[in-house]
Amino acid sequence: MPRSSALDAKALLALGPERLTELLLELAASDPAIKRQLKLAVASSSSPREAAGQVRKRLATIARSRRFLEREQRQLIRKDLTAQLDAITGPIAQRDPAAALDLLWQFLELGDNVLGRCDDSSGLIGDIFRDAIRQLGPIAAAAQPEPLALAERLFEAFCHNGYGVFDDVIQQLAEPLGPVGLAALKQRFQQLGEEPVPVPPREEWEQVGYGSGGPTYAHEREESSRQWTVKLGLQAVAEASGDVDGFIAQYAPEQQRFPRIAAEIAQRLLAAGRAEEALAFLTRATPDRSRWPEMSWEHSHIAALQALGRSEEAQAARWNCFERCLDGSLLRAYLDQLPAFEDVEAEQRAIAIALAYPSLTQSLCFLLSWPSALAQTAELVVNRRGELEGAQYGVMGAAAEKLSQDHPLAATLALRSMVDFTLAETRSSRYGHAARHLQTCALLSQRIDAWGDIPSHEAYMAAIRSGHGRKSAFWQRMRELGQS
Fold first, then answer.
1. How many CA atoms does the CB half-sphere of 258 hold within 13 Å?
2. Is the pTM value of this prediction over 0.85?
3. Angle, to 10 degrees, between the axis of helix 71-87 and the axis of helix 48-64?
4. Residues 6+ apart with CB under 8 A from 396
């Protein structure tokens, strides 16, 4: 039977413009989405005003919808939103930045509507709105809106930000806002924080479903939400203005003693050249060193010591933290600071610490990122094979890949750990992966000369058949790969 013609750009171009036009019109007649795309493309190439009108109309239609978006509809709305955003940020923005800016605001205001009507656990639709936020600054800079009007629009958007679409909007618009707009925005947030929160009427809180909590609960909830909005808004304005003290002022003294918050403050103080103050904040918030390190605090603490010229203390802090968490970036920084020839000995000490680390998974995370330790990593996998965590697909997969060329036995053990977990826990969604892992194991077995007390591939497969012979879906995947 002759092979069907390939559908690619070259084959389509061979049809000629007239035939392609006929086909597109036929498709457009039966598919409203394609028709919209074609009309928008034609308008964008000829008249930005007409294109803007089409985008505005389409965005208004989407805003009116209240239908929940199932999987197929999510894919359609994603394509639709992407097409509208491309038109706004492309041809419309190039010819009429002011119109593009207005449309971009209208687009972003769809966020709560669209995200509220679908399950966006993948984040793909949210990514479209985040991309739109990133485009907002350059388009606003080109449009040059009046700063006070921009500040007012931004304030309203930030205060009605149910799905986090506008989280970064102040930072993105810092330049077009300028000092005047940022000052006005700061004043609006301060005024909001001083305004009393009204107690909602009974019928309103009953409709919302606050139950026995009544209006008092509704009032407290609204007040808490407003305070949080004001705090985030003032922090964002302070950061956009380069006002470190304004940023710090949004945290109560007791909050400033939380290691993560102290690290945020210290990073901004360090950027402002205020290393002494940064170290003081960090010292007051020193975390419990018996627990897993708060890495943002550790990195900020080291940076503060280094900025103050306290290099020996910074080195000690790097090594101490590495011993506790095997952070490869800290070890590299530590080795870079050592005199010539001392780094080799220190590196070997670090690898020895990693090899003896209580958590094998954590040990592998570090060792796999350290090329000179590959042989020792393979030996570790073999010696501590009973501790391999097959549920850690990322780590075990990386181990198998990096060890397969020179250390097939260790790579096999990493693959087997994932297979064992998948079958023992009946993770049917991973049966295909498990079958492919076993296919790889079969290939690796041809390069293994000595198995020691580890079951050979044939013995391991016999154990799999004995223990999991009734998992028909798994064995079907095996047969699809030509394995029995």
1. 8
2. no
3. 150
4. 388, 389, 390, 414, 415, 417, 418
